[in-house]
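Researcher: Go.
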Amino acid sequence: MNSDNLKGVLQQFVSRPLPRCRGRELELPLGTGKVIGLAGVRRSGKTFLFFHTIQRLLAEEALRPLILGEYASLMLYRDVVERYGVRNEALMREMLRFAFRNTASLLNVSKLHRDFASLGFSVSKNTLHEYLGYMEDSFLIFLLRKQAHNPKKMHVMDPGLVAAFQGNPDRDVGHKLETAVFLHLRRRHRELFYHANGGEVNLCNEDGTAFWNSCWSLSDPATVAREQAAMTLGNSRAKNATGQLLYHECAPALRTALPSAKPAWRWLLEP
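Model: Structure:
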């Protein structure tokens, strides 16, 4: 099955309405944190009991950020606070919140220090560097270096967890896509960088011969012009450099201006 057919099958499955279900005396427990198996005689209603459970879950909207928040808290305390004996748990949690609200953003520790001071935290820059190191060592964040110079760019370990710290799931979707692309590339490339010089190349290898940019929507001429400039910048950095522009949605009339651009979902499915 090719990727277009696979996308169609997945979309059909996700978008089709669930069959109408009648409530039963038996209801599966929710929120246990455990895998639940269901055994019974054939044609006794097991599948429809699961359909009914899905409908109940689709109804745990307000609970979703809380569940994600529990995941984040578990990682924070088990992987950072307990492991490194962090004393200022409030500061550590606020730093984790900052990281997940600002994925795919440049990290300025001096500004971060001022922001935390304005929130009432008495903390040194050295402590901030130390705590960032704890999060990086625990794989909660990744700090991407700019080639040749600072500042670093920060990516979180799972863009899905951003919802635990951010009320609006549609905010900063371009940054979430960039982080998803980074995480996918990190499986294949040990060293990744970004480049900024009159424009920005989101990700590149060490010698600049391969680079990747991402954009949520190619829907207006200004965005297309910006991405054209970024691809030109990437191509100018090394002889025979190969670049890939990845997007989530586009206007067909503007798509022709960037013939090498590819839908991010298709690229993510490639072997």
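Model: The mean pLDDT is 87.
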